[in-house]
Structure formats: C-alpha cells, structure tokens
Write a structure and sequence with these properties.
single chain, Rossmann fold, Arc Repressor Mutant, subunit A, 4 domains, 7-stranded parallel sheet, 18 strands, 11% strand
Length: 683
C-alpha cells in the first residue's frame, strides 16, 4: 500500500478502535481515499460503512452519504459522534434544532460526514446547498436500490447520477447483494460512462445455518422455531402487514417478547420498535420487508420467513441480518404453493418489460431451486452469486440429506407435453394432458389426441404439480410473461429432452400438500395471468371513459376470453358478451392482450401496491367484488368499487369493519362490506 497506509491504520485504531482491516476493506479504503470511483459488493456484516467513513476522515472537505433508512442514519451519526467525528443527518425525522445544527456546521465548514435520504434529492435546494458545501466525496449505501426492477427500488436513487455530475466528485457505491444484471444497472445509473473500480467480495456467511420447510401448520412451525430459541433476538418476515400483527400476538401469547412492524404503522410507533430492537435482549420483531435494510444490530441470532421471499437476492439480504457478529445464527424459510402463486402474480403484474419479468421468474426459480435442493444449500446459494463452494456440513440438507429418485422419465414426459402444445399452456392444463383428463379445454384444442395424453397416469396430480415445481426450481422451464404464464423450456432442459442427461428429484416434496381449503379461484391457475392482463386493459379503458369497468365488458366475458383465448375477431365475436358494437370498439384491443402483441399495464392504483403486502389483499378483494358484482344471487344491479377505493380498503387490517363501511359508503357496504371484512380478517 502507498503512503496513505499509516494515516489509514492510525485513524482506524484511534477513531474506530480496530487494529486491522477485514478482508478487502484495506484495498477499498485506499481506492476511495485516492478519489477512484468504486462499486463494492460485500456481504452483510462485511464492514461496508467503514469503507466510506474512514476515507471521509482521510480526505479533505465533506463526504455526503446517501442512505435509505432514517434509523440507520441516526445510528451511524450517533456512533460517529461518540467516536469524536463531526457527523450529521438531514432527515424528515430531525427536530428543528437538529436541522439548524447541521446547517450551521455546513456553513462554518466543520462537518465531515453528512447523511441524507435519497428523497431529499427531490428538492432543488439540496443540490445548491451541496454545491456550496465543499463536497469531496459522494457515497451511496444500499446501491441496489437504484435497480428499477429490484426488490428494494427507491425512485429517488435515480437522481444520484445527476447529483454526482453536478458536484463533479468521486462516487463510491456499496451493496451487500447484486447479481451481474443489477451490477450493470448500478453502473449505468450511478456512474454513467465511467467504469468504476469493482470490488466483489465473497458472499459466504459460514456462521449462518440455512434451512427450508414446506408449510404444514405454518404458525405452529414459526412458534416452535422461536420457542427453541427463547431469549434470543430474532426477526420473522411475513408477506402481509396483517400477518405481522396476528403472528406477533401469537408469539406474545406463547410467552415471547414480540412486536409487529410494517409500513402501515405510524412513524413514531415504527421508531419505537426499531429503538427497542436495538436495545432490548431477546426481542422478536415480526415484520414485512419494510424492516431490516440497514439494521445495525450485530447479535440477531435467527431469522425466519413465514412466507417465501420475493427472490433469491431478497432471501440472501434478509437472512444476512442474522449473525453479523460472526457468532452462530440460524434461519428457517417456509414455502408453499400459495406463496409461489402470489410471487408469480406479482411478477406478472409488474410494469417491467417482458424480458425483465422473464428474468424475475428466473430469480424466483433460483429461490425455488434453493428451497427444493438435493444437496448442500450453501453451495447452491453461492453458485447463484458466482461463488464456488464445497458442501458446508452446516445446513439442514447437510445435516440430513433428502431421499431422491430418478425423475428423468417424468421430466421428459412433462417437457414433451410442453413442446407438443406449442409452449402455450400452464402447468394445470399440461397435467390434465399427462394424467389423461379430457376437460373441455383439452378436447377443444385436440390435446386428447396427442401422444402424450395419459402417459403420466402412474403419477397423481399432486405429484405432477411437485414435478413441475422442481422443474422450475432447476430452471428447466419459466413462465412466459408474453404468453401470460405459459411454461417455456430453457436451454437447461434440452439435454434431458434429448436423452443426453438425467435428473434426480426429491421424494419428500412429492407428498400432497395440507388440507387447508383454498379460496375458489375465478379461473384456473394457468389462465389467471391472462385474466389479470385483461382486467388491467379493461380498467384503463374504463378510467379513460370515466365509466364503470363492467360497461366495457363484465367479468364473465373476460373469464371466457381468458379460458378460450380467441385468436381472431371471428373467434372474439363468439365470446358471450361481445356484441357487434363492442367487437368493433374493443375487439382488436383485447385480442392484442391475448395474443401477446402488446402488454397491458396494471391499473396505477394496483401498480403502486406491487411488491407490497397490500397487493395480495387488493387482488383478493377484486376477486370477491367480481363474484358479488350482481349480488349473492347474481340478479342484482351491477356494482363495483374504483381501483383507488379498493386500494384504500386493502391497506386496512383485521377488525376494520367500521373503517370499511365508512370508506365504501352505505350502498357499496351493503353489497361488499361483510365479504371485504372477511378477506381482511383472513389475511
């Protein structure tokens, strides 16, 4: 190292109290201190914050840190001040005195480190303030938030590139997880034409024990896992806000210290939960993903997922909050068929372009592959991020290897059915063909005459569902967004189809699922993505006309379109509810959605809920509304709620009867109130 080494080591010891660097820290600190543009990807707990805090003290002028969470900024400012560093933050959580003190320190040039949230960049005054503040370095924490289709996207991160150009200073960006595609997006959006010095740290966290379980009385599974670790700090992640409340109550009833946390809570209450989690021993926080990014608590001993995460990157980041002190930590992730359907629907209804949604299905496939892996989970997880690894001896599958069987013949039959039907159908229809069920849909398409019809009768429907699920987990097939959920083969499948490779499958995941009664769906699973797209197009047309959605087409017409998939205007004319005028006015528009020539964007109110817990509730409310649009007996006057009204109802939690009635008004509440309340109470 060059002449900056004595200074760096001296400040490291004197200010931060460390006698040496962690792996890669020294090289990153040197590069940042020397003014290089840097993109550093280090595992959670790898010491990212030191990589910009130490250069801030070694460089002249002010270092500005863009960070996404107020709680994290306050903690880091407090820690720096305790160490004698002049640090401050400009956040919406500041008191008037705190903000005045920061402005005064900026004015007299005494401030060394300034934290601010990306949303602060939306103010034109912020750029002017920083231009006059002798900024010498711009640091970006959680840089993956710039990825527009990522799991933690923050729109105001897109402003950072312009700020960097205006300040004309070096930029150092840090994140704990970013695959190759996300890395390229970070570089393009933050660094522009400049190629940063890339530091790619290893992703292994060997102290964390990995485990997955299929859902089987999931509440009991979480309660038992927590009971075995009573007195240890932990996080339970849930897919919905309401579930955080009910599960936190169940944990408290079981004698645990537990608090709920989600984005729908008042900010003061959220801050109190954050404070208690930082200070109390043995507290469990039951949270949506709104909690945790930037949590700086080193002794979290376990993380559990009550629902399947959004992607393998989300999973890695969320479990990475455990064991940051290097001591042993444990994880448990539950998964079920409903989780997978929900995550697929989130991807299908995303406003992302088709190629991005196809990639997102691949990321979900990677997580399913981890959930149903045959061997060491750590090897599979690290391989996804491009790291080589050997069996860890420290995950549930190393502890107890699963029983497997040769699934080559079953997979070949499934792939053959996919190809012989033109890669145009989902798993449900393909399973009908394989087991020889001559449904109306199968007969209408002549699929009962295919050579593959009935060739899979030796396996039951539940087992075939598990085979398709494991095929997705191996990334042999992916849902095609342009064909509304139809399964398409990937290159990984071709050697198996040609007989050049074999494949083993797990026996334990072929067992039938639980007996919990699922709500009746409006259409079959493989037609659901197309119905969502048709509804989105109908809603957009209705909003433009300022008319109720059913004026365009009633639900039963869209359901028939989704099931029959007309290919021509003649086919469309045969759909019930499509008269001559509507065929002329809307026929081509809806055909474009069905044939995939044009993607239909979700309604803005629903799009705002994408990736949030209320999105699932919104969709269930939409389905209930469709069933009751003409009353319980189907003969009443058609009624419906606007998308924005449904979004408001979806944001409510259990026990919100009075709020539901107040939002809907007397007329709509009489038709939909009890059913909507049942959906909210069942979340």
């Amino acid at each position: 190292m060059d002449g900056s080494r004595p200074d760096a080591l001296g400040v490291l010891a004197q200010v931060f109290g460390f006698d040496g660097f962690r792996p890669m820290q020294e090289d990153i600190v040197t590069a940042v201190t020397q003014g290089e543009d840097v993109l550093a990807i280090l595992p959670t707990g790898g010491g990212k914050s030191l990589c910009y805090q130490l250069p801030a003290l070694l460089r002249p002028g002010l270092t500005v840190v863009i960070s996404p969470l107020i709680a994290l900024m306050r903690d880091q400012v407090r820690a720096l001040r305790e160490a004698g560093v002049a640090a401050g933050a400009l956040t919406s959580g500041n008191s008037e005195d705190e903000t005045s003190a920061v402005f005064e320190a900026l004015h007299d040039g005494s401030l060394k480190v300034l934290y601010m949230a990306p949303e602060r960049l939306a103010s034109g005054g912020t750029e002017r303030l920083l231009i006059n503040a002798d900024v010498s370095l711009l640091a970006v924490d959680e840089a993956h938030c710039v990825s527009q289709w990522g799991h933690d996207f923050r729109p105001d991160y897109l402003r950072i590139g312009a700020l960097r150009r205006a300040l004309d200073v070096p930029l150092a960006a840090f994140t704990a997880t970013a695959d190759e595609e996300t890395r390229a997006e970070i570089v393009a959006r933050l660094f522009g034409e400049t190629e940063p010095h890339l530091f790619l740290g290893g992703f292994d966290r060997p102290n964390i024990h990995l485990a997955f379980q299929p859902k089987n009385k999931p509440r009991d599974q979480i309660l038992n896992f927590a009971a075995a670790r009573k007195g240890q700090s932990g996080i339970v992640y849930c897919g919905t806000r309401a579930k955080t409340e009910t599960l936190a109550k169940a944990l408290k009833d079981a004698g645990q210290m537990a608090l709920a946390y989600h984005g729908g809570m008042e900010s003061d209450r959220r801050r109190e939960v954050e404070r208690r989690f930082q200070t109390d021993d043995g507290l469990i926080v039951v949270a949506t993903v709104a909690f945790g990014m930037g949590v700086d608590k080193p002794d979290i001993r376990w993380v559990a997922h009550a629902d399947l995460p959004k992607s393998i990157e989300s999973y890695y980041q969320e479990i990475g909050r455990a064991g940051r002190d290097g001591a042993p930590a444990e994880t448990l992730t539950l998964f079920g068929a409903d989780d997978i359907r929900f995550r697929r629907m989130q991807i299908d209804e995303s406003p992302a372009p088709p190629e991005r949604r196809m990639a997102d299905h691949g990321r979900l496939n990677a997580l399913l592959g981890l959930a149903e892996a045959l061997g060491c989970r750590r090897v599979r997880l690290l391989n996804f991020f491009g790291d080589e690894a050997t069996d860890c001896g420290h995950c549930d599958l190393c502890d107890r290897p699963p029983e497997t069987f040769d699934g080559t013949e079953a997979v070949m039959k499934a792939l053959s059915a996919i190809l012989r039907t033109g890669e145009y159908f989902g798993a449900g229809h393909l399973i009908d063909i394989l087991v020889g069920t001559a449904t109306d849909k199968v007969r209408a398409r002549g699929h009962d005459q295919l050579p593959t019809f009935g060739v899979g009768q030796d396996i039951g429907r539940n087992q075939w569902s598990a085979v398709f699920r494991q095929m997705m987990g191996r990334d042999l097939v992916r849902p095609d967004p342009e064909r509304h959920g139809a399964l398409r083969m990937t290159e990984h499948a071709r050697p198996i189809l040609r007989g050049e490779a074999s494949i083993d499958l797990r026996k334990d995941t072929l067992k039938a699922g639980g007996t919990r009664r699922a709500p009746k769906a409006m259409v079959s699973e493989e037609d659901a993505p197309l119905l969502s797209a048709l509804k989105a197009k109908r809603r957009a047309l209705a909003e433009a006309k300022r008319a109720p959605a059913y004026v365009i087409f009633p639900d039963r017409t869209l359901i028939e379109m989704a099931e029959k998939r007309p290919k021509t205007l003649d086919d469309m004319a045969a759909i019930n509810g499509v008269g001559a005028k509507k065929l002329e006015r809307y026929g081509r528009t809806f055909l474009e959605v069905i044939t995939g020539e044009e993607e239909a964007a979700p309604h803005p109110a629903r799009r705002k809920l994408a990736g949030r817990a209320a999105g699932d509730v919104y969709d269930r409310l939409l389905a209930v509304q469709a069933q009751l649009s003409r009353g319980e007996d189907g003969t009443g006057k058609p009624m419906s709620c606007s998308a924005s009204l449904l979004a408001k109802v979806a944001a409510l939690g259990p026990g919100a009867a009075e709020q539901v009635e107040r939002l809907l008004g007397e007329r709509l509440a009489e038709r939909f109130g009890p059913a909507f309340e049942a959906v909210l109470d069942d979340v």
